[in-house]
Sequence to fold (194 residues):
Amino acid sequence: MRHPSLVVIGASWGGVDALRFLISALTPAFAAPILVVQHRGDEGEDGMNQVLQGESMVEVREAMDKEPLEAGKVYLAPAGYHLLVEKETLALSTEGPIAWARPSIDALFESAAEAYGPGVIAVVLTGTGKDGPDGAVKVKERGGLLVVQDPVTAENRGLPDAVLLKVTPDRVLSLSEIVPFLSRQVQQRRTPVK
Fold:
């Protein structure tokens, strides 16, 4: 059975460096859209998309409300907005913080799981706080894949540890292992099983 693929990534403390590493390893042939929540301040332009675009071969941009999803592009949750998935488009929300965070990893993961079910691949990177485990559970409940950065390799292991306490992931990987794993999974999910 063929499933549409969507990669969702959540990060907090230390996430910008981890994201730079991952995004620099992507090629334009990557066959799925990638949505990213990095905890950041509520106001102003912090230049994160320019930082991430700097060494990237793929387009990196802040998501816009009702924007259609395109494979091989990275969409960042803007400061002060939850990034949500509605089938083949994005939505932005200014609803209250979830686990003290807006944008919220839980909000992205949960909406992606509802819209794409087993087509979702969720990745939890370095960070702190309690935003992320509930969304990771929802991804697994809906049949998606869950990848957690190996806490030993994380700049801050609080978020990976919190997820691992709540749900069993499909893989615990170092940063250098994540993009090759994602590439294989996305390609396999695009190929019908005979």
